[in-house]
């Protein structure tokens, strides 16, 4: 789950807790005050009825009832039970029917007003004394209006809770989106930085907050990375340059030796070996130099519009020179009708080197079995598929073949340094292209390179 959503959820849960606690408090407070006021109203009526029950004179009794009728009126389901002194049986039978606990009766005995609430019914008990006579009156009624009010309040609080939750979650999400926007900006910026544009830096707003501190930390790390990259790159470039001159001298001297007409066979053989090996070393140092340059700052190179079919024809001619016994065939069957789909924007030398590497590998690792180069295009890219019937690449190792100096475990029989494909991959990436490798050990390998065409 994204931190952003997590924050919105925590925010919502916290607010939910606060709203629930507040709602419970409001509900309990409202219920208690409604109950209290209803108990009071019932007690007033109970008191009048109790006094009426104490009167011997009937006119006095009806006077009490008239006052109650005129000024107070009846409460819903209002009932009164009067127990005069000595009516122990009546008291016991009432006790059996009514739900009040013993504490209720104890309070009446102590002459304190007793109150009890059960099954939506309010009960009050009074001990009334007048002119030496005592009655106990137990009255009950149902606060229909109060119950309905409480029910309405409960529904209102529940509905209010859910509406508030929807609002809180929506605002929480908006709020956390807002908070995380600078982090998302940093992620976008950092994603855009790679070995080719290590000089780019994150924007620092100058707000001196945590986001600024994070951007600054990233920028400092990028500074260090850039310096390290540059040092490593300069080292490889300088070393390759330093190797080049003595190598040229060695192969030149070997050629000079070979051109002498009367040298013994053994010396000729040695000169040939020196020449061949120094050529290989020269190729290796050139590849290392290109790898260092393309891996770091390819933008130095010259770019132009190139036709892929012409480029591949050149590659084939180049391979013919290096391995005369090759069996490479170019397949034009899927060539697009629209020639504009064959034109890419790129660096000629680098693209030639990239495809030559792929085709040379196919010839080498298939011991010059037939290799086909197919050129085609889809709606946005031109693709070049090089297929051989060679040794293949073990499944687990395919992902590593673009790592510099990596060589698959089945290549003991073949000479190589593991530089060609990393270089090729860098070149294709520089051209916004991609390489897909399909391979099966003992069956063969296909390298499918896609490049965006210009049109
Ligand atoms: P190398 O000089 O070893 O050929 P590359 O960088 O050109 O170096 O290739 C890296 C590795 O990828 C090779 O060592 C080999 O294991 C594997 N590889 C490349 N092309 C092929 C192919 N056509 N068939 C089988 N294996 C291949």
From TrEMBL:
Reactions performed catalytically: ATP + protein L-histidine = ADP + protein N-phospho-L-histidine
Gene Ontology CC annotations of this record: plasma membrane
Ranges of residues in domain HAMP: 177-230
GO MF term (any one): ATP binding
TM ranges: 7-30, 156-175
Domain Histidine kinase per the UniProt entry, residue ranges: 238-455
InterPro entries linked to this entry: HAMP_dom, HATPase_C_sf, HATPase_dom, His_kinase_dom, HisK_dim/P_dom, HisK_dim/P_sf, HssS/ArlS-like, Sig_transdc_His_kin-like_C
Keyword tags: ATP-binding, Cell membrane, Kinase, Membrane, Nucleotide-binding, Phosphoprotein, Transferase, Transmembrane, Transmembrane helix, Two-component regulatory system
Main location: membrane
EC number: 2.7.13.3
Origin superkingdom: Bacteria
Pfam name, any one: HATPase_c
Compartments where found: Cell membrane
CDD domains in alphabetical order: HAMP, HisKA
Topology in the lipid bilayer: Multi-pass membrane protein
The protein, known as: histidine kinase
Organism in which the protein naturally occurs: Dyadobacter psychrotolerans
